[in-house]
Amino acid sequence: MKKKLNKGFTLIELIIVMVLLGILAAVAIPRMSNTIRSAEESAEQKFMGNLVSALEVYSSDEVVKGSVKKFPSNPFIALDKWPDGNVWQFDEQTNNLRHFRNGFDGDFNSNEVQTWTYYSHDPGSHDENGDSNCFATTQNDDGSYNDQPSPHGCYTLEGPGYDENYQY
């Protein structure tokens, strides 16, 4: 009598493979989510760097037009092309520039959102105390620095990657 050869996997072998795949997934998924978050942060910083560059080009064009540096009230005006969709938004009432990492579905609380604050100041503008909003920093002979009111406009940008109250 001939012996039949069973081809295939036993139940034990299948269970072992499933356990190994579960362990592999438990290790790989957290690493992958960190990689995704890191990529999103890098993309945000690249976008913000491009936005800052566009604001500087905009202000240079304003100098050519009227001899005074000005910045737009909405930073997206400085861009050649506005961001698509609702992933990036600028709220002119709160001056908040937002990036919704998972897209915007109408609910600010259900999305992972990064926020920057952008303020533009017109040339010669002053705060509520009468102090100039914009300063020009000069270096003294002794190496120290001195801030003087600037005749040009400026803007401040605060948020991830940008120092609080840093003036451009």
From TrEMBL:
TM ranges: 9-29
Keyword annotations from UniProtKB, A to Z: Membrane, Methylation, Transmembrane, Transmembrane helix
InterPro entries to which the protein is assigned, alphabetical: Bac_GSPG_pilin, N_methyl_site, Pilin-like
Segments for region (Disordered): 119-168
UniProt cross-references to SUPFAM superfamilies, sorted A to Z: Pili subunits
Localization per Swiss-Prot or TrEMBL: Membrane
GO cellular component: membrane; type II protein secretion system complex
Stored Pfam families: N_methyl
Membrane topology value: Single-pass membrane protein
GO biological process, alphabetically ordered: protein secretion by the type II secretion system
Bias (Polar residues) ranges: 131-149
Record carries keyword Transmembrane helix: yes
Transmembrane helix found in the keyword field: yes
Name of the protein in question: Type II secretion system protein GspG C-terminal domain-containing protein
Originating species: marine metagenome
Origin organism lineage: unclassified sequences, metagenomes, ecological metagenomes
